[in-house]
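Late entry, written up from scratch paper. The run itself happened at the end of the previous shift, but nothing got recorded in the book at the time, so transcribing now.
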Amino acid sequence: MFNWIKKYWLEVLVFGAIFAILLIDLAPDYTFINKAADSIGYAYSAQYIYPSYHTSPPLYLLISNLFMRIPYGTDAWQMGLLSVLSTMVVCVFIYLIARKLIKNRYLPILAVAIYGFSALVICQSVIIQTYPLVCALASGAYYFALCKKWKLMALMIGIGLAVHVLMGFIFLVMFCSYKEYRKNWKCLLISLSFMVFYLYIPLTNREPYMWFPDPNQTNTILAVISDTFSTIISLIGQLSMWDIPKRILDTIGILGVGIGVVAVIPVAYYFWKTKLRHNTLFWLAAVPTLLFISELDMNTFDYTMLSMPFLSIAVVLGIDMLLQRYNIKGKLIYVLVVISVLGFGIFNANYFDVGRTLDKNMSASNLYYNEFVKLPDNAIFMPNYAWEWEAIYKYNKDYDKHIYPICKDILPSELYCEQLEKDGINLVLSDDTNNSIKATEIAESIVELNDNVWTTISTNPSTFGSIVVETNHDTSLVNIIDEVRMKEVSENPKVSWKPYNPYSIYTTSIFVTQWTYVLSSNKNITFVAFCALLGYTVFWALTGGFKKKKRVIQNEITKDKS
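Output as recorded:
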């Protein structure tokens, strides 16, 4: 044992440092920062075996249920520990992949450090989140593909598909990249068989219904598929075409800071010198990034985390190529990158310490434990943010309360309003075609027409801190959409191209100011992309594309005959 530690002391040091940082920074209780707004909803669904929002990661919830049985820490800490351990698994696979591709012993360790000390990775690994586990399974699939262990690769992909639908994009890349996988029906069956876990959603959907108010509609597989599809369509490709340049700059900032400024150079060099069309590593990194670029919601930045394992590997591959091509002294490259990694690592370790630095008051926990006690039984609770609405479901279960939650985001749904009326909630439907304004008008009618209605008032927007107050029919307490800002954005779609601070994106502190634009931006890129594809097809056909294709086929037939 001593000889092993002596031989691999550097690996032990780096892995140990990453693990220690993640444990120290791990949120001690509920928080809404770092894109953890879904954390209480996930905890409720995992602990009491309910579907979580929309696409509902079934296997993630089942695994989390096991972690919530750990006899230590809060529910949030226990589920967050799954994120920490998942990131450590990613580090192991990054190390194994780099060792397989590079002879140099120290570059694989550097790849691990780049990933483990990354701001993007740390911020998502110290909260309740699905993406660290997805990254672990995606990097595992790539490692087993390199080892030509196709069944193990298929297993990793299958588990990933049951954890989050985002793994479907990794499945497509691997399917297109490896004929040994796509032509092996046993491997495909292994992967696709894990989709049976999505039966978790209709099987566990029962009162109280957090996301589906009508049991007759939602306890069907068809409804699950329809909801998943509509959720994907509502986001992917819906970004305003005027906002694409700015989103690209934001993406560069997110990933640039994520892998370290100096590390961008070897990544660019590696991809520049390789044939991207046949480079699986490139597509594994590019697809989640391209997905985010087309997304309507800036807060899906966490999709880019799935690119990080592969970008970290690309960094060291690029360094290795630079050393061999230009005969650069290795020490110089190592020093520059290590300084970058350690500099960001030390800063990030301090910056993303949730309980000590980012969210000192633990605003979500304070709302849950200290504010919800103000709500009397049978109160109507209509908070101004959806995640506060999710939290009341868990609060009711934990403390055997009977508080009626109303989600403003779902109010534009006539089905939802019908359910509210059946449950005795008085409201007036709105005829406005804008869903945001429609939701606000219906919410105001609920405040006016019902007694015992409670809501929340924001106290600290950067941490989403709120207090609970009774409305007493005062509609001014409802978070009314800023119609002036909505009109301004719709009339002037060309927004500033100045990118956001990446750290403001990581912590989701831009949410409050950016969400108004998301709600009103509907000149999406889907139509533009369709026109571009159609134009390319026409151009290809007019320039003899079909004839060229026919000649290639004829040549292949002649070659086979000969």
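The chain has 30 helices and four strands.
(Scratch paper discarded after transcription.)
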